[in-house]
Amino acid sequence: MTVTITTLVENTAGIPYVLAEWGQSMLIEADGRKVLFDTGPSAVIIENAKKLNVDLSNIDEIVLSHGHYDHTGGLKDVLTLIKKAGTKPNGVEIIAHPDVFQQKCFYVKGMQPGRIHIPFTRAELESLGARFNLTSKPVKISENIMTTGEVEISNSYEKIDAALHVQEGEEFIPDCVADDLSVIIKTDKGLIVLLGCAHRGMINNITHAQKITGVDRIYAVIGGTHLVSAGPKQMSETIKALTQLNIQKLGASHCTGPKSAAVLANEFGDTFFFNNTGIRTIL
Q: Which of 11, 128, 215, 226 is most buried, by the most CB atoms less than 10 A from its CB?
């Protein structure tokens, strides 16, 4: 089985003419399915898709990694495009966690909260053809493609950003980001794990993928690793875990951060690549 991953949105541009924007979106083509994993923060996904000769009007499913604007802000534009094309008269299934519509914010006591939730209501998106499948359980999309569902936290060195909160009335509650999920693709070479932001930990996401599939071998990990603020201990433990897994392809994006990406590039050599906007990876 051939797996093609096209990165439609990422913080930096990897080829000429495409636009870079803080966020992430990847198109998965495998098992006869076209699955859109996140949509970036705006209509930039539409422009980049045109430049990359990607047809978003015939995607089969959309998976949302979590409910932050930089992964969901382009959703309305994608749904509008599909509705105008008339290619999905019954709408498009959108797979996400039940917490995806929480009022998420970036909040530090004494400072104004930064709103980072999905910038649309559920009703607004449903009027454009969205059919939400909200579950904390893994979802099997095809024979070899599935979501992780809610990721189990199984190590002590990957911590959720303390500034992430959910607002309930006037109260700000620390966000455990239970809606953080990844996509898993089973191949003969091992699992491909596609990360949204890995707020619950890159290694936790990988370990959870192994647990729910019963497959230990990890072939590739691509996406946002949330190592942007990782300290020496977390970086050391992450590198140790990735080395033990003997990963063959490691494509860092988005919330990895340039410093941590450079460390990974130095450590893993040709195994590593920068998964920027416009990069098409065939596995």
A: 226
